[in-house]
Amino acid sequence: MDTVEIILTRETPLRESTLKVMRAALRDLYLVMKEAGLYAFANPLSSDVLVALKRERERMLANKGAPDQAGIRGETHEQSRRRPTAFLRQHQPQGWKPERRKELADVREGIHKVINAMLDSEVVSAREKAVLHLLQSTGARIHEIAHMTVGGYQNTGMAGQAQVMNKGSYGREVKTIYFAHNPCVQVALNVYFEQMRPLHDPEGCRRLSDVAPDAPLFLTERGTPYSPNVFYWHWYRHYLSWQTLCPVRFSPHDLRHLFVTEYLIKLKQACGAGTASFDAEKYLREREAFGKTIMAWRSIHTIDMYDQSREGEAVFSVLAGYQQDLAQRCYAIGSPQAALPAKPCVVTQATEAEPRPNQEATVVWMHDEETLNWIKSMEQQAGQPWETVGRREERGE
């Protein structure tokens, strides 16, 4: 039986997530009907053969019981999960990759300019400044910062770090964020705790030490728990004033990608990148530790996507310089060999002298074989002579 793959187009009235839910519901419907004896055929949305092959492959995997973090399993659990179990399949989009345009130096510089403008502005509240400082210095997600608790921030007296709820932690504060070496973060937090939070605390607590550990660290003006939606409302209200400082539009989540990108740049420099003493093994080892400890990624391969994106920066940097030259009408006419020492030239009979100022220039056209055959046939039709020398000389007019 042939495989049928469903690929959405612009005209498809359903979203991809909706189609997945419908497909899963139909699969379960056929399964229930078959178990109840109401459907005598095989489940069209599930293949017993493919299910058996998938199980057999997983059984034969090397270190099949190891987690992805160990890096020794034959394939990741995500790759195993994506293996088909039905002949009717839905197109699986490629995994997320960093946007290379935002990896370039001019965009990274522009993002910092916008953030610094917000942090220096008097119209941005102390709460939003504290959140921006944490996003910029820790690489945490916005919901991890917005949902911080007082107990998670106090972290049993460990200054300069806090416990937050990671993605998929089901409300448990299992991830540690670090900001001890940026004093601006603590200053911004102290300003918020001393000047703004007491005004909105529902219990009227003036000091953070008097607040219950499970209470939200950030509060709205109504005394309710802070949320990412509240932050985004304030973000876009202020962002429009300074968006021209950056060549492209960006969101607060891009601060997380910026944090990873610039950390890798610093790490490569510390490992001697660009020199003969570059320690590649040390770089890979510390890069993996960064993804596991600082970013708390489940898969050790997530950091690979950032490194692959970094490798393409040189290509876009050269392209940017070339386009800037075009804008200034500066063209790359010269050849790289022009800078090399001139080699002695042996003049033969086929070598022609350089044209004098008053002499017409000679243009030499080099063609491939197919083009040469076409030119030959056209000139033969016109009754013009043809020279079989592999190149044609034509006077410029």
From TrEMBL:
It comes from the Bacteria. Residues 100-320 form the Tyr recombinase domain. Transmembrane segments: none annotated. PROSITE patterns: TYR_RECOMBINASE (PS51898). Gene3D superfamilies: Intergrase catalytic core. Keywords: DNA recombination. Residues 62-101 are annotated as: Disordered. The keyword Heme does not apply. This is Tyr recombinase domain-containing protein. It comes from Dictyobacter formicarum.
